[in-house]
Structure formats: C-alpha cells, structure tokens
Amino acid sequence: MSVSLTVNGRKRVVDSDADKPLLWVLREDLDMPGTKFGCGAGLCGACTVHLDGEAVRSCQTPISDAAGKAITTIEGVAASAIGKRVTDAWVALDVPQCGYCQAGQIMSATALLKQNAKPSAEDIDGWMSGNICRCSTYLRIRAAIRQAAGLPAEVALFDAADGEQVA
Amino acid sequence: MNNAAVLNRRSFMVASLTGGVVLTLDASLTLAAAAPGAAPDVLNAFVRINADNTVTIGAKNPEIGQGVKVMLPMLIAEEMDLAWEQVRIEQTDADEKLYGPQVAGGSTATPRNWLPMRQVGAGARAMLVAAAAKQWGVDAGALTTARGAVLHKASGKSLTYASLGKAAAAEAAPDLAKVALKDPAKFTIIGQSKMGVDVPKIVKGEPLFGIDTRVPGMVHAAVMKCPAHGGTVASFDDAAVKAIPGVIAVIAVNSGFVPEGKTDTLLIVADSWWKASKAREKLVVKWDDAAVTGFSTAKYEKDAAALFAQTPQASLFKAGDADAALAKAAKVIKADYDYPFLAHASLEPQNCTALFKDGKLEIWVPSQNPGQGRAETAKLCGLSPDDLTIHLTRMGGGFGRRLMNDYMVIAGQAAKALPGKPVKVLYDRTDDFRHDFYRPAGWHRFTAGLDAGGALVALKNHFVTFGKDGKPIRAAQMAITEYPAPVVPNVDLDVSYMATNLATGWLRAPSSNAMSFVFQSFMDEVAEAAGIDLPELMRRTLGAPREIPGERVAFHTGRARAVIDAVCKNAGWKGRQKGRGFGFYFSHLGYFAEVVDIGVSDGVVKIDKVWMAGDVGSQIINPINALHQAQGAAIEGLGQAMIGQKLVQEMGAITAENFGDFALMRIDAVPREIAVEFLKTDFPPTGLGEPALPPVIPALANAIYATTGKRHRRLPLEMI
C-alpha cells in the first residue's frame, strides 16, 4: 500500500506492506537508521519515536497505523526546544557508552519532559524503565533529564576539569 | 607487565591513513579511499597532518562503548604535543600487520598500548622536530613543541605542524624503542577528561553501527539456525519461501560451530530484512540434531549432583594436606554454590555486511576480534586471509559476545554465494539469545577449616564445570590462584567436567564474574565463623605487602589491602552490620573493593548505594570514561545478581526468546549513587573494562545475608 507520512516535518510517501513496522520503514525505506532495532517486541525501547507527539515503540507500530500522522525521530528531535535541551544535556554529561540505546532514551526523555516539565526522581525512573541501556548509563540518564528540566543534580556529578566527583 | 612494544619499525613507517587532506566518511561507513602515492603529510600508520593544522589520528581498536576510540588517540596526541581541539579521530580498518593487535577484550587495550601508542606519538613529534631543525639550521635539541607547533625559543620562531608536514613525512622514522617519552608530570591530555568522540553523532542518530551499514545494491539476510547447538541441516524445502516476491535466495552455511562440509544455518536473502525475517515462517527444515537434544538444564543439575558424590576427576592445585588439616580444625565450614548460563545480550543484535567481488571479500563488521574473524571467514570461504578487507564499525555493545565472529563467517559465505551483491546478515533478538556463546554455568563444593585461633588453615573446592577430553571448554576454567588459595597452607582445588553442546564464551570479566561471587561469599561465611568481618579476614590472610606469582600474572597483596582499606574508610565501614555487604576481587590486573548498601522493606531488596575503590595503576588516562566504565560495570554486576538473569536449556536449545525471558537491568532498579575512588599507585596503567564488575556481586549477596540472615549461594539471587 502507499502510505503518506510526515517525518520530522517533511512529507514522505512510501510503498509498503501494511503490516511492516514503522521501524523498518524508517530504516529500510526512508534511509533513516537512527531509530534502532533492539528486540522487535516492544521490550527494550531502542526504537522509540514520537507519533503525533506520543512516544511509541516503532517496532510495534504497523505502518498502516502511522499513515497520515506526524512522526518525530532522533534525526529530528532537536528541532523542538525540549528535544534540543535533552540532546544538549546528553552531550554535556557524556551520557552514551556504546550509544546504541540512546536514540530511544532521548526520545523517551523528551516525551517525558513534554508532559511533565519538572519530573520527580520517581517520575523519571518510572517513565524511563521501558528503555534498556545494556551499558548501564542510567546514572547519567537520570542526571541529563534533570539537567534538561533545569532541576538540581540529585547526586555528585563528574567534574571533567579535575577528574573527581563533586557535590 | 605486558608493555612490550607491539609495533615494529615497519608498521610505524607504512602509511595507512593516506588520502586527501580532508577526511570524509561515506554513508557506508568506509574510510575515505586512499590516493596511492599521494600522501606527503602522513607521518605513520596512525597520524596524518591536515592542511588546517588539525591532526587525524587513527583509532585502531574496536569500539564497543568502552571508550577506546578516544583513549588510544589521547596517548598519541599527548606525545605529539597537540592541543586536543586539533585532534580528529578516525576508526581504522582491521589490519594487524599495520596496526598491531586490534582486540576489544580482556581489558588489554591499556596495558598493551600504554607505551606503544605513546611511542607512535613521540616518533611523529621527533620527525616534525627534525624537519624544523633542518629548515632553521639549528640543533633539534634546541627546539620544543606545544599545541601543534615547533618552537625555537632562542629566536622566537615557530612553525605549525601543518607547515612542517611534508618535510617531516620525508624524515626517517626514529627507532620507537628509543624515542624519548614525556615525564608524566607534564601531561596535558592524559589524565584530563575527554568526551566520547561519537557522542554528538549518536544524539543525532547518525549511522555509526554495524547495523547501519548501507552499501549500494545491498540485500538483506535473516537467519535460521539449528536451535539445538551442534545440530546440522539434514534437508530443507525452500519452494514456498522462494515464491515470496522479494526473496532472492536461501543459502545453507556453516557458522563455524559444526565440522567443515556440514551446514547449521540457513540464510534467507531478500530485498528487505523485514521481508526475509517474515519469510522464515515458510521455510521447512529438517535438522540432524539427535546427538545434542539430550542436553538440558535439568540434566546439568543431575550430572553436577552425581559428580559431587564422586571423587573429583582431577586436581587443579594442591598445597599441604587439606584433609589432615580439616580433621584437626577447630571449626569446619561447608557450603555449595552455583551460577547459571548467561547471555551477553548486547543491544545491537549480531550483524555483518559483506561483498564478494573479483575474488575479494569486503566486510563491514562490528567485531571485537576481527583478526580471528578474518582467519575463520577466509577458511570457511576458501579464501586467503589477505583477500579480506575488514572495515570496523562502532558496536552496540560487546561484553565479549563479539569476540566470536559467527556473523562474519556466515555473511562471508552468503556474499560468496551471491557475487557482486552486498549482503547484510542480521540476527533478530531470539537468534541473538539462542545462538550466543554463553557464560558457562558452574557448581562449587567448599570446605574450609579454622584453627583454634580463628586462622584459615584449610580450603577445599570441588569445581564442577563443562569440559571435553579432560579439559575445560572455552571460558569454563578456574584459575588455581583464586583467592585465598595462594595464602592458605592446606589446599585442594579439584575439578570434574561434564559435557554440554552449548557454545560457550567470555562474558565481561569472564570467570571472575562467577568466581568472585562464589569465593567472596564463602569467605564471608568463613569470616563469620571466625567472628570477624570479611575485610578483616582479607587483611589477616593478605598479610605483608608482597607479590604472589600467578599462572600468568602476579597478585600484589599490598595493592589489595589498600583498596580494601580505602573503600572501608569511604563507606564508613564499621564491621558486620545490617544493610551493607563487602566484596573484593582482583581481575584483569585491576584491584577492586566494593561495599553495597541496601534497604529491605516488605521483603523486597532495594540497592541504595555502591562504594568502590580501585587500583589500576599510576594513571587514569581518561577520568570521566573511567568513572563511567566503573559505574556501568557495577550496575551490570548487580543485574547479573538481582533481576533473575539465567538461561534455561531444553532439548539441546536455549529457550529464551526475548528480554521477557532474560531480564536486563532497568533504571528503576539502579542505585541512586555509585561512589568511585581510584588509588594511584606506582604500577603501569591497566584496563578498566572489566575489573570493577566482579566484587559487586558478592558484596550484594553479603549485604542481603547481613540484613536478612539468609545466605544466598546461587545466582541469580532470589531478591525476596
């Protein structure tokens, strides 16, 4: 079937099987490999994108469900003010290790701050628990979300200047 | 230790990062094509000086998130006297003749490269200085360097490296073994925190990983491999699959796990991976697996119990007379411990892209061990290793999984079957779980004896593990120097082997991730019997600072003692108390002591904080990355212990399908804080990928015991 989408503000038309997941349409048909394949079962969050502003698992979203909707991916997330603050915090705190899950983490974090500007520590853990980071960068994911939200650091952060943890 | 220069003069002089002044990466992640013979600014295989006075440094080791892509170039940049802002980093291809060893494993990058990479940088600097000396007609000894320029203080003259590049490239390369290295007190890059070079690209979703490889004309392959490891393809019917539009071929290949001439994997090749993956449903396969379907988790439990009832098959290590010492002991402590098979579960599923053209094989691969992959792929493809060009991609995690190259081996065979067509092979999550090289399970029966004074005088351990022909299979061995064996007067370390059909392999901190739990938990039991806490038992048994020789590396009791004392001081450790536990372990040349603080409410354990003190030598090269490695390792270790990680095998096959069957650590179970202190000691710098992981597992188990009175002797811990 022919499907019209808006991806990161741009109209795209793809010819695809109706049941092909949005993840694979992005990766294979639209040459946008930033959205990652981790589990194919909605369990790891690596494929998270925004569909009409809501965080969804693109591996579980048939392209037919995305027809006519606005999709935001990691390639376009920084176009919004919140997305920009989140990605800036990710860079400033050197969050990624291998980096593979981080597109999904950033998309989930941005969706969190869009509906909860000042999340509590529990809010952050609860919202982000759908995203696995195999390298376990979780302390910095928490810190980066707080930084993007303008919240004070919860625990000692790393001071790159002198190589020590500081309060 | 192990600081032998691995780069010979030849490899130093051969130019690899050749090409234009401007470096570009094309969409398929290949490096810019070399321009033959037109590389005047290339000083050696690792260094290219660009016209704008930036310097491109080749990062030779595979990057799996351990930060080596920044760390190794830091060593070169330091000795070249560059400003970090000048440095551009480029992943090199796999070519060990040119670059020396290229392995991401065993926390070896630091000890192997600490001197050689600095020598590469110092050699490049010497060539630049020599060129400037000639140009100015002064003695090289009168020149200094700073921030990418050579300076002549007497005259006030200076020249940028870019302006000296051509002349320097014509200079004879110095003898790297003799080139002068900087006094560490003068380091300006080493010891300063440098952020991940790919992070700005990662947050934009730019293609970096193996799975992102895109080559024009590429086709996609999904995998169907015999579920029971070791089984082979008896026959298959692909008529229905081939009738699906878009399906190109079905190819039977050998993953390297079955004898040559047999196949164990079918690759369904289509114009889309999604299509290929779905088409697997229509493939009818008959497997020849009768010889391996008898293996199961239940069988191993039964076999282990039977082996414990028998005399051990072999002695690994014997000191004194353990039985006699136990007969005389004032107290005897007995306990059995065990741990399960584990998967690596890197988040990026295994994959590889390959193109066979004109008798040559070009490969894009996320591999931790591409040299081994080259040899094995060449062999199974009937090619010479030199026929392979291997491009290294960033990896979505490794943890030891990608030390094995099955995905490269099968992609090579698929490409060979489809000449001229690039083929990307991709496992799905179930393939990834069921066709891993697992951390082997193991069983330990301990007996220890204390004398009337509470001293540990006897230790016996019967280790039941997996083996073949009287030898452990990969990653299933135990070191005879497991602490405290070297310091107890009467010791029996014995072993019995049983068979498995599963492929086994190294999981981050291999062996140590299991032995730490077993030995440090049991030592906590021994300490309690002696009326002391584990840190105190460690201090008493470690004794005076000295080196104890090992099978491959020595163990320094003073370094162990120092990290134990440091973590106890930082954590305010006051002996055995509810809510906290302690663990120590020495692995991969690193000494780590850790304290885990927990709370228990309504029977549920919550980890509050981890304290860690480590000693990896005289220099933390990249402090921010070191902290990240240590914290991530601790969380990974907690994940192995506390969230039910174990694999189940039935009918020869692993049953786990997805993350619902094999949990990974999630953010809501992570402690609020992990406090890390690195002790700087007068020993050569060593690696950090692994040694921070092992102690956290027994520290957690010991904390649960201290808090609830329940001693957990099996992984994963039952947390309620």
TrEMBL record, chain A:
Signal sequence region: none
GO molecular function, one term: isoquinoline 1-oxidoreductase activity
Key words, A-Z: 2Fe-2S, Iron, Iron-sulfur, Metal-binding, Oxidoreductase
Transmembrane segments: none
Domain 2Fe-2S ferredoxin-type: 1-77
EC number: 1.3.99.16
Domain of life: Bacteria
CDD domains registered for this protein in UniProt: fer2
Keyword Iron-sulfur: yes
PROSITE patterns documented for this protein: 2FE2S_FER_1, 2FE2S_FER_2
Presence of the UniProt keyword Repressor in the record: no
Protein's UniProt name: Isoquinoline 1-oxidoreductase alpha subunit
Upper taxonomic lineage: Bacteria, Pseudomonadati, Pseudomonadota, Alphaproteobacteria, Sphingomonadales
TrEMBL record, chain B:
Family matches, as Pfam families: MoCoBD_1 (PF02738), MoCoBD_2 (PF20256)
Organism: Novosphingobium hassiacum
SUPFAM superfamilies: Molybdenum cofactor-binding domain (SSF56003)
InterPro entries assigned: Ald_Oxase/Xan_DH_a/b (IPR000674), AldOxase/xan_DH_MoCoBD1 (IPR008274), AldOxase/xan_DH_MoCoBD2 (IPR046867), AldOxase/xan_DH_Mopterin-bd_sf (IPR037165), N-heterocyclic_Hydroxylase (IPR052516), OxRdtase_Mopterin-bd_su_IorB (IPR012368), TAT_signal (IPR006311)
SMART domains xrefs: Ald_Xan_dh_C (SM01008)
PANTHER family registered for this protein in UniProt: ALDEHYDE DEHYDROGENASE, BLL3820 PROTEIN
Keyword Oxidoreductase: yes
Span of domain Aldehyde oxidase/xanthine dehydrogenase a/b hammerhead: 204-291
Molecular function via GO: isoquinoline 1-oxidoreductase activity
Designated name of the protein: Isoquinoline 1-oxidoreductase beta subunit
PROSITE patterns (alphabetical): TAT
Signal peptide, first to last residue: 1-32
Keywords, in A-Z order: Oxidoreductase, Signal
The protein's Enzyme Commission number: 1.3.99.16
